[in-house]
């Protein structure tokens, strides 16, 4: 998913499914440019969304209703903090 990488062919005699292929130029500048998109860890970072409004707290159903979009996976852990 990172940078829309999806891997190589799995047929037609290809032996390089999980490698990126050529990443640099040949004679000039003879190096890999800084900031080149490469595969690596994707996600698992903490995000803070400010300015959301708590509409309702229901302690019986253990539920808090928030107005606005919350980043993260479904059924993920969400931390609430008072805005400073």
Distance between the termini: 35 Å
Question: How many whole angstroms does the radius of gyration measure?
Answer: 22 Å
Series of H and E elements:
EE
Largest sheet: 2 strands, antiparallel
User: Which range best describes the helical content: under 10%, 10-25%, 25-40%, 40-55%, 55-70% or over 70%?
Assistant: under 10%
Structural class by SSE content: mainly beta
Number of strands: 2
Shape: elongated
Which regions have little confidence, pLDDT < 50, spanning 5+ residues? none
Strand fraction: 5-15%
- Count of discrete alpha- or pi-helical segments spanning 4 or more residues: 0
Mean pLDDT score? 86
Q: Order of strands in the sheet with the most strands? A: 1-2
Question: How would you summarize what this structure contains?
Answer:
The chain is mainly β and 84 residues long. The protein has no helices and two strands. Strands 1-2 form a two-stranded antiparallel sheet.
Keywords:
84 residues; mainly beta; 13% strand
């Amino acid at each position: 998913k990172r940078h829309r990488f999806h891997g190589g062919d799995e047929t037609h005699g290809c032996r390089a499914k999980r490698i990126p292929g050529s990443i640099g130029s040949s004679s000039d500048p003879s190096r890999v440019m800084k900031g080149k998109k490469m595969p690596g860890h994707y996600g698992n970072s903490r995000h803070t969304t400010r300015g959301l409004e708590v509409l309702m707290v229901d302690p019986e159903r253990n539920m808090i209703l928030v107005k606005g979009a919350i980043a993260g996976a479904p059924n993920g852990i969400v931390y609430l903090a008072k805005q400073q």
